[in-house]
Amino acid sequence: MSTQGLEKKVAIVTGAGQGIGLEICRQLCEAGATVFLNDIEQSLAEEAAASMQKAKGTCTAFPGDAADVNFIQKMVQEVVKRSGSLDIAIANAGITLFGDFFTYRPEDFNKVVKLNIGGSFFLAQAAANQMKKQKTGGSILFMSSVTGHQAHQYLEAYGITKAAVEMLAKTLVIELSPLNIRVNAIAPGATRTERTLQDPDYEAKWAGVTPLRKPASPLDIANAALFLVSPQAGHISGQTLVVDGGWSSTSPTP
User: Fold this and answer.
1) Three state DSSP letters for the chain
2) Which residues are designated catalytic?
3) C-beta atoms surrounding 196 within 10 Å
4) pLDDT tens digits for 179-212?
5) How far is the C-alpha of 171 from the C-alpha of 118, rounded, in Å?
């Protein structure tokens, strides 16, 4: 995919110490962007940023809690102070807490909602306010999930947060389009990451129920992300791109 137009763009990616977020940062750096890599774990953020020293662009660790509104605001302010602008904001940070509906704990529900919805909403708010000042437009991207489209047992709380960020992408079109700020979402299906591969049978199980016969790689999702934040997607806003190898067309659970 062409990454023309991402050179020297300034981007924030939350929850990017590993997995999909890390690969998005890597591809942005390879495209020549200035990337601020956020993760709640400082050592993970620093190691991830250091791994991209030879990339065309630059990557700087920015550890902190992406569910904390005060931190989000300070992060955006500091990024602008260091780089002069903010062009891309990707709300990748999220948490999955499985649980039976009948016994799901309020503290777990609040934790999932605070990060998955609140972290996305307030990163978009802070980024959009900065982009409004710049008067040069920008791109905001949310990370949804196929569980926001299809029912998945024990993921009720998680699923409703992912459906919510897709609606957020749709509704923000009304206020952000006049400012030339585009907002979209990606809904990944089963993806091979450090977390999912803790289950040694994960890849085989999902390959068996995915029409393309394999789960996604982080690069599959990152390629979709780069397209949506790039000038090549300049007339796309308010949309959710499902990247699941066809799984949501059939939806069997392994």
Assistant:
1) CCCCCCCCCEEEECCCCCHHHHHHHHHHHHCCCEEEECCCCHHHHHHHHHCCCCCCCEEEECCCCCCCHHHHHHHHHHHHHHHCCCCEEEECCCCCCCCCHHHCCHHHHHHHHHHHHHHHHHHHHHHHHHHHHHCCCEEEEEECCHHHCCCCCCCHHHHHHHHHHHHHHHHHHHHHHHHCEEEEEEEECCECCCCHHHCCCHHHHHHHHCCCCCCECHHHHHHHHHHHHCHHHCCCCCCEEEECCCHHHHCCCC
2) 158
3) 15
4) 999 999 999 999 999 888 888 999 999 999 999 9
5) 15
- Break the chain into its structural domains and give their ranges: 10-245
CB neighbour list of residue 75: distance below 8 Å, 6 or more residues apart: 12, 36, 38, 62, 64, 126
Question: Which regions of the chain are under pLDDT 50?
Answer: none
Pull the structure tokens for residue 217: 């790689």
* pLDDT value, residue 3: 61
pLDDT in tens, 129-146: 999 999 999 999 999 999
Question: Using CB atoms within 10 A of its CB, is residue 208 exposed (0-12), middle (13-18) or buried (19+)?
Answer: exposed
Instruction: Name the CATH code of domain 10-245 (choices 2.20.25.90, 3.40.50.140, 2.40.50.140, 3.40.50.720).
Output: 3.40.50.720
